[in-house]
Amino acid sequence: MTVLRLEWISKRFGAIQALEEVSLSLDAGEVLGLMGDNGAGKSTLVKIIAGNYRPSGGRIYIGGAQKDFHHPIEARESGIEIVYQDLALCDNLTAATNVFLGRELTRSFGPFRIMDYASMNAVAAKLFKELKSETRPKDFVKDMSGGQRQAVAIARTRLASAKIVLMDEPTAAISVRQVAEVLNLIRELKRQQIAVILISHRMPDVFAVADRITVLRRGRKVADKPVSETTPEEITGLITGAIQAA
Q: Which PROSITE patterns does this one have (predicted)?
């Protein structure tokens, strides 16, 4: 089932044409690797899907219904969650508190309402178990590895029952062992029939988890191929322009 379809998406910033007539589709449980050099338009495209930017032209369909997002909250209400490169986590809070940040559970205590940490810890523990992560709800984020931090950010998307998760460079600047943890998290999202768009410069990571790779160059889509029908060498050529299109 197609959960996302983009038709002829364009975006201008003044005189700069950031995206020009980009079309793509994404099925439930599919991992799409979105690749391209710096300035190719990857982050702009993802921010349009997430409701951060409005396109200058083109149409967005979620589950077959046309959408016109004015704010990120509207995209979230349609089942779209984004995990930014900096993860937007609070180091001084626990994993569970970060998962529920802005959506905290409370309970009544006389005339007052207080934070229900026990319930938040229980739900977070269940989410981490579903993701097959060793992250513990009461651990502080400041003490976590890069892979555990990604687990917290991804658990937050699961709390919102996301249908589509957008991930911006999730394996940048972390160790080999932590990269393996993050790739396993992506595989687990796929197993749960959640669609993932993965922005990454790391070719081995994309080939390890993606079903399909879309390449952008200077705001245009130059390739959209199943991983089984391409090679890292071809993708590198498409990114650099040594190969014009495929």
A: ABC_TRANSPORTER_2
Burial of 230 (0-12, 13-18, 19+ CB in 10 A): middle
For the record, the structure tokens of 229 come out as 């029908």
Please tell me the pTM assigned to this model: 0.89
Total count of domains within the chain? 1
- Owning domain of residue 191: 2-92+161-240
Structure tokens at 227: 């991983």
Within a domain: residue 114? no
Q: Output the six-digit token pair for 82.
A: 């984004």
User: Which residues lie across from 112 on neighbouring strands?
Assistant: 109
Q: Rounded to an integer, what distance in angstroms lies between the CA atom of residue 222 and that of residue 51? A: 24
Nearest CA to 159 out of 206, 107, 124 is that of: 124
Tens-place pLDDT, residues 165-208: 999 888 887 778 888 888 999 999 999 999 999 999 999 999 99
Which of 246, 194, 193 has the alpha carbon at shortest distance from 215?
246
- Residue 169's domain is classified under what CATH number? 3.40.50.300
pLDDT in tens, 120-134: 999 999 999 988 888
Q: Tokens representing 15?
A: 């005189």
DSSP state of 108: E
Cα–Cα distance, 29 to 186 (Å, whole number): 10
Q: Supply 198's token pair.
A: 């993965």
